[in-house]
Amino acid sequence: MGKYIPLSVPNLSLDILDNVRETIETGWVSTGGRFIKEFEEKVAKYVGVERAVSCQSGTAGLHLALRILGIGTGDEVIVPTVTFIATVNPVKYVGAEPVFMDCDDTLNMDMDKLEEFLENECYFKDGRVINKKTSRVIKAIIVVHVFGNPANMEKLMEIKDKYNLKIIEDAAEALGSYYLEGKFAGKHCGTIGDIGVYSFNANKIITTGGGGMVVSHNKELLDKIEFLSVQAKTDPLYFVHDEIGYNYRMTNIQAAFGVDQIDRLESFIETKIRNYNLYKEAIEQIEGLTLLPFRHDTRANHWFYSVIVDKEKYGLDRDELMLKLNNKSIQTRPLWRLVHKQKPYVNNQAYRIERAYFYEENLLNIPCSSNLSEEDVALVVNLLRVI
What is the pTM of this model? Predict the structure, then answer.
């Protein structure tokens, strides 16, 4: 067995220990303490919004977003099938039903098919979109910036305005990705729709171990999200709760990690882009392998690197290559199982899913940690050449 190279692991510094020590010495290790506010302020400044609200996870953030946007029992939310299932499950938490969309060649939601679906399979009445097949009201769209590659938000926001829909950006994988051209030049993923959500899970570009962050330009929405995330305390002194809330706040000890990690984010992205380009130059010379590009009109964070395996030209299919790399101590992963095929969702509507099947069968994610060395990249590439 050779050197083990994981797919995506945290890039942590022992400098964090000073912050962690402070949380222990002061006793502020739970859902109060100075690091929470500091981390929220740093994230807000970084992505260019006035305010951010931390929470327990990206999933919790999506749940809160759906709830405060008024999505509930009997409603529908359009979602991508190419995403981690955590994007979709909160739709069911609030009693709504997902409608699944195909991906385009960026792996993000196919906006042309989305528009086609709304035009041909729905009708617009009294400011509401009604699904002809189910007679349910479609109230929102959750768009995911898959692997840090920004989705086509210009087209999506035109659709939003035309059909009076709410937009939730699942930017869990896209902290640090922003647009360079067009209407949203300079805008970060997560800051364009009604609400954006980031994740700080251990495999994300920065981590707090767990945790998430919600952003919006609407102060009232953020106030409500913060209120619901602390058990909806109308009067915290006398424990008055006028509605159902959640234990969804980030802990101070998590935020102690975050305030250090956010300061390192740009250096992490610099390394990610460098390693991506090293892979790209090498993989272009290997017949049968293609490294998926990131959009040129954006500064993507290059979170995950995706290789497409052409069995006819390469000699192995995706799963055979994955197994051989694993046997050489190189961790790789396939694309997620398409969500509309998962057992809880097989009866939900899925509109003309086509391209997603190709990527599900042929895509392989290769090592991409922000502490991956050039020597590690070379090792992976050499195996791809000779395996």
Answer: 0.97
